[in-house]
Each structure stands twice: as C-alpha cells, then as structure tokens.
Amino acid sequence: MKLKEIILLELQVLFRRKSPTVLLLFGIPILYSFLFGYAYSSNVIKYVPTVIYDQDQTTTSRALIQAYADSERYQIVAQVTTQEAMEQSLRENEALVAVSIPPKFAQNIKLGMASEILLETNSTNNMFGNSVISSSQEIIQTFSVATGQKLLEAINQMPAPALRSAAPIKLGVRIINNPTTSYTNFMLAGLVANGLQIAILLVAGTFIAKEYNQLFRWQDTSSASIIVGKLLPCWLCSIGVFVTYLGIIIVFFDVPLRGNPISILLLGSAFTFLVVNLSLFFSAIASNEVSALQVPLLYIMPGLLFSGLSWPQLAMSHFSQVISSLMPLTYMADTLRDLLLAGYSPTLQKNIFIMFSSGSVLGLITMFVFSQRRRKIQYQTAKEVPV
Amino acid sequence: MSWWHIFTREIKQMFITDRRRAIFLFGASLAYLILFSLLYGTHTVKAIPLVIYDEDQTQFSRSLIQAFDDSERFQIVSYVTAQDDMENALHEKEAYAALHIPQKFTQDAKSARSSTVLLLADGSNIVITNTITSSAQEIIAAFSRETGARLTEINNGQLPSMAFNKAGPIDFRLRVLNNPTQSYLSFFVLGLSMAAFQQGIFLAVGASIQSEYQNPGELKNAHPLGIMTGKLLPYWISASLAFFITVITAIYFFEIPGKASVISLFFLSAAFIFAAIGFNAFIASICNNELTFTRISIAYTVPAFVFSGYTWPQEAMDTVGKIISYTFPLSYFSNTFRELMIAGYSPVLYRNIFILFLFGLVFTGIAMLCYVRRLKQIHSAPNC
Fold first, then answer.
1. Taking a C-beta distance cutoff of 8 angstroms, is the pair B100, A150 a contact?
2. Pairing state of beta strands A97-101 and A74-80?
3. Which residues of A touch B158 (CB under 8 A)?
4. How close B284 gets to chain A, by Cα (Å)?
5. Which of B35, B155, B47, B62 is nearest to B117 (CA)?
6. Using one digit for the tens of pLDDT, what is the confidence trace for A229-263?
7. Is B287 helix (H, G, I), strand (E, B) or coil?
8. What's the burial of A286, exposed, middle or buried (CB within 10 Å: 0-12/13-18/19+)?
9. H-helix or E-strand containing A243?
10. Cα–Cα distance between B318 and A39 in angstroms, integer?
C-alpha cells in the first residue's frame, strides 16, 4: 500500500460512521474545557465563612468587624459569645475563619499599650488558608495604621504627618500577567492540554497494537509508511482539537490571548506531535489494545502535576525534576500559559525544539520496535504453516 | 454455581490468572502516594528567585534588602541598575519577583514623608504569587512598623516601647489550624492517592465484569444475587486491605498526619469502596468491551478529581459545578478522608458514609439488573 492510501484508510477509521473515534479525540478536550471552565468560573475564593468572637464590644472592635464585613473575601456567618462556640463552629465547618477580639481591646490601644487579635483558620484545604492569610494581613495592617495615626494625632501631630509616621513605608504590589490571580487563567489551558493528551493516548494507543493481529493486511508495505500513515491523520486532527479547545477557553471563559497565534500554533503542533508519537510507542510495545491504554495510565495525573503547571519546578527536588523532564506537558503547559497571559515565553523555541526532536526519536524507535515484532510474528506464522 | 464458588473463582482470577487486577487494586494508590510524596516532599515553595533594583543605595535600603535576603521564601538572584533590566529579568523568568526601592527612599521614610517600595510579582503561577505577596507583606509591615516607632520616638519624644505600640497599635496572631505550615504534602497527596485508588478499583472490577462476557456459560445457573456477591465481595475485601496499606504507608513512611480513628476510617472507606465498586460494575456491565470501558474510566479520572472539591473547593464552584460535583462518589470521600487524617474529625462523616452507602446500594442494584440481562442475552445468542 502507498502512504497516501494508508492515510486515507486511517482517516476512514477515525471518521467511520459507526462510533467514530474522532469524537473521542475532540470530545474529551472540549468536555474538559467546559467542565473545568465552569468549575473555576468564580476565579478567586470569596465569601469565606467567618465567625466573630468579640469580647470587647466597643466602637473600635466593631469598626474592625466592619472591615471584615466589607471585604468580599469574608462573609460573617455568626457572632458568638464564648470561646467554645467559636471553636465549635470551626470544628463543624460552619466557619473556616474565626476572628477573636480580646477584652479591653480598645482600652489597651488608647492607652498606648497595643493590643492583639487572634485569627484562627481551618486550613485542611490550603486554598482557604492562602486566601485568609494574605487578605487578613491587608485588612489588619490598614486598620492598625489608621488607629496608629489617631494615636499620634493625640500626641500633637497633624493628621497627614501622623499617618506617614504610622506607616512610613508602604508596599505597592503589582502582579503582572494575571493581576487578579485568577484560577481560570492559571489552570484552565494546562488542564485541558492534559485532556488533549489523554484523548490522544486513548485514540492513538490502539493504532499499532491492533495491527499485530492483522499483519496480513500490510504484506507489501514498509513499517515506516505504516507508522507515518498512522501518525499524520491523528496528528493533524489533534492540532485541530488544540485550536478548537483554545478557542473555547478564550471565547467562553475569557482566558486572555496575548501571544502570537502562530507561535502558539507551533507549540501546539510540537506538543501533539510528541504525544501522538508517544502513544504510538506505547501502542507498539503493548501486548494488546486494552493494555496499550493501561500502560500510560500511571502517567495521567503525574503528567499534569509534575509538569510545573501548579507546583513550580523551582520547588521540586532534583529527583522530581528528572521525572518532570520526562513528561511532555512540562514543555508545553507553562510555556502555553506564558504565551497566553504574558504574550512571551523565554523557553518557547527551546521547548518546541525539544518536543519535535524527541517526538521524532520516539517515532524512529516505534518503527524499529514495530518492524522487529512484525518480523518475529511473521517468522512464527511461517513456521506454523508446513511447506 | 453457588456464590462461594464464584467468590473463590474470582480470588483465583484476581491473583493468579489475571494478575493485572491485583496489581491495579494494590499498586495504583501506593504508586501515586510514593510519586507525589516525592514531588511535594519540599512541602512549601521556598527560595523564589528575586531581583533587586535599589535606586537609593543607602544603609537603610540595604537593611530592607537584608530582610528579604533573610527570609527563606526569597532568594536574591541579581541586583540590577535599570528599570529595563528588572522587567527583563521577570520577562525571561530569571526571577519571579522584583523589588524596586525608589530614589530618596531613606530620606522620605525618615523625614516622615512616607515612601513606597514596589514589588513586582509574576502572576501566572498563583502558587508562587501567593507566596510572594503574603511573605512580602509580612516583611514590609515589620520593617515599616520598626521605622514608624523610631520616627515617633524622635518626633514626639516618646519612650521606645510606647512609640512602638503607637506606631503599630494592633498586632495580629494567626493560628492556622490542622495544617499550620500550609504544607502541600499534607494537603494534596492523600487525595491524589485516593483518585488513583478509585482508578485501580475501576480497572480491576471492570476487567472482572467484562471477562464474563467472553465465557458466559459458567454462570448460567447462578442466582443474580449470588453472582454479584461472589464477584464483587473479593474486590471489596481486597480494596479495603489496599486502602489500609496505603494509609499506613502514608503515615509511617511519608509522615502525613494520621489523626483519624481506625473505626471512622474503616466505615468511610468501606462505604466508598462499596459505592465505587457498584458505580463501576454498572458502567462495566453496559460497556460493549473492555476497550470502551478502559477509555471511559481513564477519561473519568481527572474530572472526578477536580470536581471532588479537593483542590478548588466546592464552596467556590457555581451551581452547575456544584451539581456536577455532587454526582461523583469521590466528592463524598476525599475531603472527608483528608479532614479525618489531618484534623481527626469531620462534621459530615456520618452523612457522607450514608450517602456513599446509598450510592453503592442503588448502583449495585442497577448493575445487577443490567448484568444479568446482558449475560442472558449472550447465552441465548446462537454461537455462545
């Protein structure tokens, strides 16, 4: 068979009328885009349930409570009157944060003795912990500065200098690329890239494994043409899926597109090229179709989490970095996010090169494995049939 | 065939004929546990590369830089002398944060005109961004307070301790319960391991259910209830065993806190495994072949994990997200399991055990109906 015929044949398999596999290829990433897009649609954690234990009951303490009530991060769900009730509501998860204001809070401040408040937060889920720690620092510091200003005014300073003495150094924070630290911008593109990777594995994983049972179909065809003929249609469709899912997350979930579309397309092509080759490789070494899918199973979640998408490379140990370097998503997820959010990625060319070259190497290995196994099977069948 | 025969036959299949099943069941959760414990072994993000652009170059500005240098969260990678260099360092990812100290920083701060330092942080990875903003806030607040106290001492003739209290009259003590260091290891690994555990159950039970479609004659005269009990009970027992092996490994080898009581863990895991086996028996019984089943179960893993509320909490999902989340058995298990392990207590334990048990009951029931019907169909087909 000629290469062109093989490609047409494979396209027929992908688009055959009865249960077309191309649906799987398109379906999973599109489904993931919508599912995760909706899951993260609130972008940041807001309205953390808060319980207040105010032992002071003065204007000052109520002003502090007001500051919490005004922040959209918190939602005051109850005011309690005992320590036990406060701890109880944290224990029962009715509240995830408790603000405890001690007795004589206002008095101590006004006497210049300083006062402290206690903030308790339940951090079984780190997401809440992070949100509470950073926003509380902000609220209490602002409040403390305002109070400090009044105290200094009381000892004969003018209001403006009093404020500047109370807070001589201010911190301006400018978060670039993703200023609201939106979770959608942070995770969605990479998470769906993982979906694309899974879809490719599920579809291309069966391609070669199934041929070992029907080698007679390929009698006059070279192994190279078979592999290339199987690679090309699947790769082209995968690029199509990549473009589709990016379109969805940009249009429906407002993920910014600041980078050059052509470099993004190149990155996507390199990534899909590598993953298709990897799937074909798994397929070539597997004993049957089902195990061709089960071999890469161990790799789904690690592929995502070792990629540096959420847990950064700089926090990994050397051993983890080695594992990380084996995951295709490592070369894709972070770079794609940089291109989308910042419009530029310093590792773009390097990663595209790595993905294309390791994909090609894998392709060659697959060809070798396939032709060896094919020869072995043909040899065995030849022996079984008596001349 | 009595249920006992099916039961022993199943055990033989699991450990001898088709060893894959035992490997999935016992291996998946352990493999994930080990892999991710290694990944999150550093617990928190430390030593974030920081670039300094100090336009002031005074002793005072250097003491601020020293404060950043002393923090284990930051690691100063370079000092630059131009705005462009600073932005370039962020652009090229040589640094994830940049501290810009303006001209006349010392003069302004010490003459009570107040001064602003600018912190630039890369926002694309929010794990890094959160660490940068919260620790920088802390450092600057402490530094500012100390400076304010000194100003008050000088300008208002206050005694040092009084001045300190007036410059920063309110202090806050933060007590982070259950996971005080915000360690990723305690937070994340258990749930990942449980996601794999669920996957292991799926593939093992799926292989078992599907295998009967190939040679359905053997179960011809068995009672439907007997078939279900005989086929599923071995997996339930083995999965419970696998669960406790994983928990023990997590506690003793990876120092993940284990405050849960054995009894609560037993009931929770028993209910979850029952639900997972039932749900999965149902899916497997309606799939045409093992290939389709494997595809479905692999595509299911990631959404089930994300929607379980294990990382992005259920409370923060919108209505659609919440509804989807309620349909996954993992949602009732993984959060409660983490609460039990880390806090030793979960307010929704009994409710979730009950829901999971119901899940299991309903799905096992449906699975039984589908399965027996399907087996009969295959029996009556001429070639079997």
1. no
2. unpaired
3. 155
4. 14
5. B62
6. 989 999 999 999 999 999 999 999 989 999 999 99
7. coil
8. buried
9. helix A223-253
10. 7
- Within 8 A by CB and 6+ apart from A375, the residues are none
Judge: B129–A41 Cβ closer than 8 Å, yes or no. no
Statement: residue B332 has pLDDT above 50:
yes
Order across the sheet with A169-176: list the strands.
Answer: A169-176, B115-122, B97-101, B48-54, B74-80
For A310-337, the pLDDT digits (tens) are 888 888 888 889 989 999 999 999 999 9
In order of A185, A191, B197, B199, B305, the CA distances from B330 in angstroms are: 26, 19, 10, 11, 7
Provide the phi-psi class of A57: left if phi over 0, else alpha when psi is between -120 and 50, else beta: left
- Name chain A contacts of B301, Cβ cutoff 8 Å: 300-301
A80 forms beta bridges with: A53
- Over the Cα atoms of chain A, what is R_g? 30
Q: Is the model more confident about A150 or about A387?
A: A150
Distance of residue A386 Cα from the nearest chain B Cα, in angstroms:
30
pLDDT band with cut points at 50, 70 and 90 for residue B210: confident
Q: What is the number of helices (H) and of strands (E) in chain B?
A: 14, 5
Amino acid identity of residue B275, one-letter, is: A
Do A208 and A280 form a contact (C-beta atoms < 8 A)? yes
Write out the H or E segment, with its range, that includes residue B88: helix B83-91
Which residues numbered 19-78 in B keep a CB inside 8 Å of some CB on A? 20, 28, 31-32, 35-36, 38-42, 44-49, 64
* H or E stretch covering B300: helix B290-307
* Continuous segment of H or E residues that includes residue B119: strand B115-122
Measured CA to CA in angstroms, residue A174 lies from A210, A281, B218, B237 at distances of 55, 46, 70, 55
Tokens of B329: 């058995």
Residue-level length of chain A: 387
Q: How far is B316 from chain A (nearest CA, A)?
A: 6
Alpha carbon distance A169, A59 (integer Å): 28
Question: Cα dist. B344→A11, A56, B354 in Å?
Answer: 55, 32, 19
Handedness of CA A71, A75, A81, A87 (dihedral sign): negative
Q: Which residue has the tokens 């926002």?
A: B123
- What interface predicted TM-score (ipTM) does this complex get? 0.84
pLDDT of residue B384: 40
Helix, coil or strand: residue A47: coil
Angstrom CA distances, B129 to A32, A135, B91, B134, B270, stand at 26, 14, 15, 9, 40
Three-state DSSP class for B284?
A: helix
Task: Find out whether B373 and B312 touch, Cβ atoms under 8 Å.
Answer: no
Nearest to B117 by CA among B91, B134, B136, B130: B136
In the structure encoding, which two tokens stand for residue A52, read together?
């207040």
Which of B109, B155, B199 is nearest residue A169 as measured by Cβ atoms? B109
B246 by DSSP, 3-state: which? helix
A93-143 pLDDT, tens digit each: 889 899 999 998 888 888 878 788 888 888 878 888 888 888 888 888 888
